[in-house]
């Protein structure tokens, strides 16, 4: 039985705006909404989607240039045991009838297709946008969420920053849209993938135990204290070391925010905003998780305070990057100043995590 009666209810928690879903990525959102379909939640299950907010800054060893900000946190073991996702994939539109059948069962069904040909998506290019096999087929740039088919229209759900001016709202919603199926055929003709989600409701615990929290803190310390490592062509700098490396590259004029990133179809400012936003979102979930669980552990209040302080500096940095993207006024020295604030706050946070773990290990 689907407990969501109206598509807009996916965005609510007991009648108020849901505080979790906008901080999840496109792979996690369908899992969360599928969970909301199946059980009645009293509050947002931050523990289920808690993830280590660690990352690496990847530098080309030969050219000394930024290649990527690689999000390397492992999947939350709690979520990993709850959700099972089965992918069905094919070139062309062979699987759409199977997809429609799954939707008819009354649950949302996530799908993947060629984003440059999806009219409502922010990265839409044209219906003739070139599809390159196998490169574009093997990539999974974005997961879309279908809710139902109604009068030959797909009713879908999407985070509004990812929508463009072609978005047509469903029942006045900012996030639930509708589109004629015929308009999706150019994208579906490239490839179509859909995902069946199975949930083990017996393993769901919307909160968490203090031992799991402490192991989570130890995991963050292990990432942060690790040395940079390399492969054949790249050097990977973890967490704060990575932020310091970003700052150095900006100061040494090795990063021009307006220049195109060779590994992505965006400039460096857009890369920063994209990847650093993912990190900030995971930190926000960590913060809300702590507020929700209220662990009685020595040093928890200091950690909570420093995490909130750091999160505010991350938000300020991302907002500045977004302003630069919109205004097209790129200022590397300003980003350095904001990075300095983030680095300082992260150092304080890391020491508070370290003290908390040390104090609990001696009890």
* Number of helices, where a helix is a run of at least 4 consecutive DSSP H or I residues: 10
The biggest beta sheet reads: 6 strands, antiparallel
User: What ranges have pLDDT less than 50 throughout 5 or more consecutive residues?
Assistant: none
Major beta sheet, strand line-up: 5-10-6-7-8-9
SSE series: EEHEEHEHEHEEEHEHEEHHHH
Distance between the termini: 47 Å
Q: Return the structural class.
A: alpha+beta
Rg for CA atoms: 22 Å
Helix content: 40-55%
Record field, number of beta strands: 12
Average pLDDT over all residues: 92
Please report which band the strand proportion falls in: under 5%, 5-15%, 15-25%, 25-35%, 35-45% or over 45%: 15-25%
Shape: globular
Can you put this structure into words, describing what you see?
Helices cover 41% and strands 17% of the residues. It has 363 residues and is an alpha+beta fold. The protein has a six-stranded antiparallel beta sheet with strand order 5-10-6-7-8-9. The protein has a four-stranded antiparallel beta sheet with strand order 4-3-12-11. A two-stranded antiparallel sheet has the order 1-2. It starts with 11 loop residues before the first strand and ends with a helix.
